[in-house]
Batch of 2 targets.
Target 1
Amino acid sequence: MIYEKLLGTTFDCECGQRHEVSPRNLIYAEDALQRLPEFLHTCSSGTHVNLIADERTWSIAGRQAGQTLEQAGWRVSETMVPDAGHGTPVCDDTTYAWLCREVSRGDVAVAVGCGVINDLTKWYAFEHDLPYVVIPTAASMNGFTAANVAPTLKGMKSLVRAQAPQGVFAVPSILVSAPYELTSAGLGDVIAKPFSTADWLLNHLFLGEHYCGFCSRMINSLEPGYLDCPGDLKARRPEAIQALFEALLYSGIAMTMIGTSAPASGGEHLLSHTLDMMCAVDGGIHDLHGRQVGLGTLLCAGLYERILTIDIPECRALPGDIDEAFWGSVAENVKDQYQQKRPLLQLLSDKLTDGKTWQVFREAAGLQVRSAQVIKSCLQQAGAAHVFADIQCSRDRLRAAAGHMHEIRRRPTVVDLAWILGIFPDAIDVIIDEWLT
Ligand SMILES: [Zn+2]
Ligand SMILES: [Zn+2]
């Protein structure tokens, strides 16, 4: 990986910012766990390590890591995060409070697992000023190397600043043999990234958000690794899993470099976050983050296709306030975020009529995103979720999520643009029928 030389460095970027790439070591090797004890000595002068896992990840890698560390002289504590109602742990305020009570602090924390376990450990380590490393057990999402966490706080999907790990210690055979729905979720998460970056461009060109061409090129350069060989991923060919995993790691690093989720989370992520929040309200079941993000990407691909054909944008009235009845117990928090976004939407709407900026955006975003057909065929060939039935969701529920997803975050995305331009709500049904059914 050509970007490996960035690890553990701080550098002055062409974008004018000084970027810190905090992970120092990304190990992808069969002997990764054997290399962990020595690396931990470079993270802390102490000798007490705390492994945070769940029942499944403990048996996959945690136990072996614990034994290896003990043999090397580390004192090992383990914290087993319990499953929540639907059979897996969740990353929310309740679980975090539980973790803070249960965990034996130690000198360094090691997350053994993926999304939830990694997020909880990262969050805990940041709040308690501990170095942390992660042992991934599947290539399922890109949060391994990110410096933020997306927990559910009081029912609201939120973004909390945390810290990136000092190292990632992945064993290829573990990732290759992980349940395939986790791997295909990783594809759904990563296939979104060029779209997230297009949304980032939107915020940059119209609203003055900082933008980094270096990060954008890095994200785009990872794309062939997963987009060009979905069949190899389905066949679990080691090279395909490795390419997917590296794309996940480096898209997480892009977020860490910028200090926000902008390079790797845009409108397509809002569909997943909204589905998660709907479950917090009504107790329903949601699917894996990346599987939902894959569908969100298809939806946004459908939106970009429509938006990029517009020569001269005509703005409709901004969408009204949030639908309080829909959001129920989390309405107040949703409203708070949306109120913060309203002035930005007004500004975006005003600036859209500036034809020159619109043409620059059209051209740049057009180079950035793929067609819905390309996304669909990649997800389909890879055996990843690509229709609403795949994510245990009814058409009505998906439609409700698509119609409310713009209400939950204060940062504008292509979904807001679709509302401002009058493409939403009419296109919701058309895109669902065309690409998500
Ligand atoms: Zn994601
Ligand atoms: Zn930069």
Note: Residues 331-352 form the longest helix (22 residues).
Target 2
Amino acid sequence: MSDPSPHPMAFTDLPPGFFALEDEPEFDPARHLQLEAPETVYRLGEFGYEGESLADAPVDFAATSVFRIMSEEGAAHLYRIAKSLEPFTTSNARVERNLRGGVYRSKYLRDLCLSPEVAEFMSGIAGIELMPHTIAHQLGHINFNPPEIGRNVDKWHVDTLRFDYVMFITDPRSNEGGQFQYFKGTRDEVDALKKAGKPLPPDRIISPAMPGAGYGIFQQGSHVVHRAKGLTRPGERITMVNGYIPCDPAFSDHAAYGQLVGVDPAEVVTIEYGKHAADHARRYIDRYLLQRDFADDREGVAEDLEKAASILQTAARYIRAGRQEIEHFGED
Ligand SMILES: [Fe+2]
């Protein structure tokens, strides 16, 4: 894997009201990661994606079975950090209690989420070169269970990011309920079922058994419909979601500014999204336009220039359009 480009957010200036945690352990990939290959990797074709709905995805990877990401020691550090960050949780229309932007507050969390070792490992699984998400609020998202028993942690949905892993920070074996689930079907299928008032067929819902803290699944979250169920008796359920994007800037952006601005502080997410778009266009120009040799390829050069411009124009249009309703497919 080529050297990762620096993240467009420097993380030296924290957003207003954000403070860095003190006395954190240092993230040590050799000790804190334990990357073990998943047994099963599902393809989007197996989920029913075909034609245009498949062409929309950068790769046909859908999701994995459960695999280990962090060591026991790493997961224990992350648990203590999650507990320190718990006072800063917020609510939105989909998730009752989540912590976003934790990568500004915790260097350990940031180093884990930006880890080139993890990005390379996930790239190998997905079959496409990936890099950590260039929107800081799409890194290290942490879900905490709602205090009310039975309330789902997160509703059926697809993600506002392309690729992500969902990892348990607490040990799911000590809980009743609280399963992470994904549906072996397409977004359109779920949409049609929900509009018809029908539940998802239970025999196509996968509820992978999680053997402990530090284990998770990896998915193309833009296409795999998933949710997190509520606990059925009192307990603690904490999970982390980390986002990735394709390294190749020719793939279109999937970040939904209108959704993010409904969830995250506008003064933070607008800057993050603007820099994310600028970084995308810059990487496109670097990788395509500036690599060109002498040739009379007027059409190619014109297309490259237009593509770079359209990355920026599309982002500007989304920023002007502003907030949109948060999308999800409901509870059951
Ligand atoms: Fe999700």
Note: The two ends are 41 Å apart (CA to CA).
